[in-house]
Amino acid sequence: EPEVTQTPSHQVTQMGQEVILRCVPISNHLYFYWYRQILGQKVEFLVSFYNNEISEKSEIFDDQFSVERPDGSNFTLKIRSTKLEDSAMYFCATGSGFRAFFGQGTRLTVV
Amino acid sequence: EDQVTQSPEALRLQEGESSSLNCSYTVSGLRGLFWYRQDPGKGPEFLFTLYSAGEEKEKERLKATLTKKESFLHITAPKPEDSATYLCAVLTLGGNSGGSNYKLTFGKGTLLTVNP
User: Fold this and answer.
1) Which residues of B touch A91 (CB under 8 A)?
2) Chain A contact present for B46, CB below 8 A
3) Residue A51: its chain B contacts at CB < 8 A?
4) Digitized pLDDT (tens) for each residue of chain A, 111 residues in all
5) What is d(CA A45, CA A79) in angstroms, rounded to the nearest whole number?
């Protein structure tokens, strides 16, 4: 069964550094999403992406964050100048229409 | 603002003891309601999508139902391997005119533990 692949599985970075989280979506999916889950808390919507542009974003998704599809296949989330509170699991999800499938996540630890 | 509330927060069952999890929602423009299973340290695993009131879906020991205000996930004769956090999420369409800004809003989940 096709699956969403995320890399790396775990990223440790120093506060103030930039990180790029990568996602390979299921082929033929048109909708892409990033979600965040802080330890012990609920899954939070960050951004949705369709037709090579952001279609919806949450209050969390401020100027520190950006998304792109650099080569038409991968889907990336860039976090600039990381803060301690950015430590969380970051999930990529992709969908076609009304179904959304999640990757296994990248655990980001900011120290 | 879209609201999704799941109850109970945690549920402990004995193997074979059937029960139900609840997901109530207040949203504008519901396009679907999703149930996911999440194991510790893993991504949400898709279980069901329900689109309209009265709809039911089944998969093994799980059955999901939907009304206009809430959804239930019924677990029949659970086994220890059913232990996980069960997440409910509503799919809505945002306000821009393009019609492409779907997003999922999650509840906090129900942590289910099934004891042997």
Assistant:
1) 43-44
2) yes
3) 100
4) 779 999 999 999 999 999 999 999 998 888 899 999 999 899 999 998 888 889 889 999 999 999 998 787 889 999 999 999 999 999 999 987 677 899 999 999 999
5) 15
